[in-house]
Amino acid sequence: MELPPRPSGRGRCASTTASTWVYDGYDPAAERLRESLCTLGNGRFATRGALPECAADDVHYPGTYLAGCYNRLVSRVAGREVENEDMVNLPNWLPLRFRLPGGDWLTPDTTRVLGHRQTLHLDDGVLERRTGYGLDGDRVLTVRQLRIVHMADPYVAALRTEFTVEGAGVDLEVEAAIDGGVTNSGVARYRDLDGRHLTDVRTGTAAPGTVWLGCRTRTSGIEIGLATRLTGDGGITARHEPLRALQETRLRLAPGRTLTLDKTAALHTSHDRAISDPLCAATLRVAAAPAFDALLADHRTAWGQLWRRAGIDVPGEPGRILRLHLFHVLQTLSPHTADLDVGVPARGLHGEAYRGHVFWDELFVLPYLNLRLPEVARALLDYRHRRLQQACSAARAAGRRGAMYPWQSGSDGREETQRLHLNPRSGRWLPDRSHLQRHVGSAVAYNVWQYCEASGDTEFLHTKGAEMLVRIARFWADSATWDARLGRHRILGVMGPDEYHDAYPDAERPGLDDNAYTNVTAAWVLQRALEVLRLLPEPRHRDLLERTGLDGGELQRWEEVSRTLDVPFHDGVISQFAGYGDLAELDWPGYRDRYGDIRRLDRILEAEDDTVNRYKASKQADVLMLGYLFPPAELRSLFGRLGHHLDEELWSRTVDYYLARTSHGSTLSGVVHGWVLARARRAEAWTFVQEALRGDIADVQGGTTGEGIHLGAMGGTLDLVQRGLTGLEARDGALRLDPAPLPELSSYGFDIRYRGHWGVRLKLAHGRLEITLPRSHQTPIDVRLAGRAVCVEPGETCRLVLPE
Predict the structure, then answer these.
(1) What mean pLDDT is predicted for residues 16-21?
(2) In which element (H, E) is residue 61 found?
(3) What is the mean predicted confidence (pLDDT) over 649-667?
(4) H or E stretch including 246?
(5) What is the mean pLDDT of residues 739-751?
(6) Where are the beta strands (DSSP E) in 25-139?
(7) Residue 11 has pLDDT above 50, yes or no
(8) So what's the pLDDT on residue 283?
(9) If I label 504, which of 333, 395, 552, 757 is the partner at 20 to 30 A Cα–Cα?
(10) By C-alpha distance, which of 87, 75, 44 is closest to 409?
(11) What is the pLDDT of residue 253?
């Protein structure tokens, strides 16, 4: 078995095809990044791409995470008790280590490595690993492994290990394990917090070759059952230690002959349906699981079907990265997700950053899923609807009516934003005020509207969707206060998407007034809620009025507030918030000269005993997010409804103004700026698109990807190609297109699912747009492009010349 040569210097991605992602050479400094990007999952659970023979330490971090599995613990930090809910690191099914009899266990950190290659096969969701270990004399042990987290059976994972020795024969001791002694310790800045989420760990042997481990989470009481089956050459014995179930075998390797061990795992929890006991279910499932080859065949079939539904065909390097992004989105949010009560975790199921919480990242992910996997998009909106009453309770606690969704959500929908956060640069624990980002409710409403427009799901719109829109609109109307001096309504004491600014300089109370993004999106929600109420069938309209207590006077106020919310301006541009123009200018060249990377400018300034609240400096897009959510015509209409004239010159000045004052401290920033600039200043857009594409693969945030991928940014790059550059909108019962192709991304194709039509093919190439509608008994699709309207019949292909 030939091994790749070991490269000099840092191992790097060496993939040359769209279907594989390859890392050559062993590089401890890059291991955490590779583990995140080589994570395998199926929408229900995922396992990081750690080497099975390596335990958690400063280099390696194996982790397995189940969607929606949270646990809440109280820790004492900086003299205060703080409560945090975390996505739990589950017992590790992966361990499989080996050694010469009586010797040390072989790992890349303790043994001479002659070659090392990891290949992530994107087409079929397989992680392949080949490592050559130099033994004594001239003997070389080659280890090849294939790993899957099954996409057809979402409760199963499997690992095949092949051992080959060259030079002379050797005996090899192999130990496989299930490890229940894991903790949440994958993020350095959280290590002062209690990370021991598992308790009542017990182990046993179910049958020859099969062991099990059972446990539960400490406070949420989720029962976990995990069983593994080990098969292969040689006899297998089992033994048990506290917190671990172990299996051992001894292999006699003859030169050039390959011996194989297959480890199959089954994971169940008390959250699963149609089972009586998680441990019993896991042992029965692993016993019934077919052999590795059959598992692999079914797994590949499932991935092939998924790629047909969700794939995108983009040539060159951008296409290769987009395929990796889509791979990780689908591993986190697959058709299996539709059966779960889960949201969109900001860092995927790939690590412990952000504690596995749900923020507003669905705003960047759902638009892609709406047109590919609408059943998954609806399930993610169901997660929000199930927590609607919790959002209403939060609003009441804040003295407001309606629904106030939290900035960070977890198991039950309460606000999970930490009250303290650590600045690693200064070592200080600081107040965290990001719970003042009330705009997440507008994101939920936007996602409801976008899903219903794309899917035509009037049943959802007339029931759960309408109720969410109405209760979010009620919150915004009740949050607006009249200012007689301005003659306008205002929303006070919030934070915008920027995240740097949480208070005015030297203010005693946190919060900012009239954040432009918050106010404009609130006006949009009010307008849409009124529209939905007008469209509802009379019986449903009556039911909703009775359920919510709406009356004519309240609706009249909604209409008024939707037209009078204040949008501040200064220096001929839209102000990020009232008073933004009074802040000091930052010495941007000076800080770049001193620090180089200033993406986390807030941490730099705090370490200098200063605060970013004093400066005109943004972490990411705030005002410009409006250009991401709304096409130019709709944005002009929104401002017109609010009494302002928004022309191209004003918007262009605003774009220029904030581009010069943004540090891009979020991976979402490149997505939004690339999207906006594709229409405002096309020549500069590609720089930001590249930044968005490279965000995780190059770890541009400096170590954060090793703690979990940035799912919103990955989804956002996909949506940039699907909707941003095509101007694709599902609106008013028609597909609308307003292409703004970049020279670097001007030819590509993809299939969408639109209102009952499966596999609608859109292809852009050489200034032409081609739309193909598969044969079916569905009604035709109306397509509108640059003032033209065409009707595409099932089985027909329509070709349109794009305007210059």
Answers:
(1) 80
(2) none
(3) 95
(4) strand 244-253
(5) 89
(6) 40-41, 45-47, 64-77, 80-89, 96-99, 113-121, 126-134
(7) no
(8) 98
(9) 395
(10) 87
(11) 96
Backbone angles phi, psi at 800, to 5 degrees: -125, 140
Any residues with CB less than 8 A from the CB of 167 and at least 6 apart, and which?
135, 137, 138, 139, 140, 255
Q: Over 741-789, what HEC string results?
A: CECCECCEEEEEEECCEEEEEEEEECCEEEEECCCCCCCCEEEEECCEE
Tell me if 725 sits within 8 A of 674, measured CB to CB: no
Are 268 and 285 in contact by the 8 Å Cβ rule? The answer is yes
Q: Are 53 and 98 in contact (CB under 8 A)?
A: yes
| Alpha carbon separation from 198 to 88, 167, 195, 794 (Å, rounded) | 8, 45, 9, 54
Residue 246 CA to residue 236 CA, distance in Å, equals 10
The CA distance from 598 to 609, in Å, is 16
Smallest CA-to-CA distance from 749 within 322, 441, 418, 455 is with 322
Tokens of 304: 């092939």
Tokens in use for 732? 């008013």
225/283 Cα distance (integer angstroms): 8
499 is catalytic: yes
**Residue 203 DSSP code:** E
Average pLDDT, the chain: 94
pLDDT tens figures, 45-100: 999 999 999 999 999 999 999 999 999 999 988 788 889 999 999 999 999 999 99
**Rounded to 5 degrees, what angle do the CA atoms 143, 158, 41 make?**
110
Q: Read off the pLDDT of residues 199-239 as tens digits, 9 standing for 90 and up.
A: 999 999 999 999 999 999 999 999 999 999 999 988 899 99
Amino acid at 517: Y
Q: Which structure tokens are listed for 571? A: 């220096």
pLDDT of residue 709: 98
Phi, psi of 748 (to 5 degrees): -170, 170
pLDDT at 683: 80
pLDDT at 15 over 60: no
| Angle made by CA atoms 276, 278, 280, in degrees to the nearest 5 | 75
- Token output for 763: 């292809």
Cα–Cα dist 452/467, whole Å: 14
Q: How many whole angstroms separate alpha carbon 35 and alpha carbon 51?
A: 8
Q: What is the C-alpha separation between 147 and 120, in angstroms, rounded?
A: 10
User: What does the alpha-carbon distance between residue 673 and residue 669 come to, in Å, rounded to a whole number?
Assistant: 6
SS3 258: strand
Query: Given 499, 691, 707, 729, which residue is catalytic?
Result: 499
Residue 534: CB atoms within 10 Å = 9
Q: Which amino acid is at 368?
A: Y
User: What's the pLDDT score for residue 4?
Assistant: 33
Distance from C-alpha of 167 to C-alpha of 74, rounded to nearest angstrom: 56
Selection from 475, 455, 281 nearest residue 379 by Cα:
455
Residue type, 355: R
d(CA 770, CA 313): 14
Residue 777 in this model has a pLDDT that exceeds 70: yes
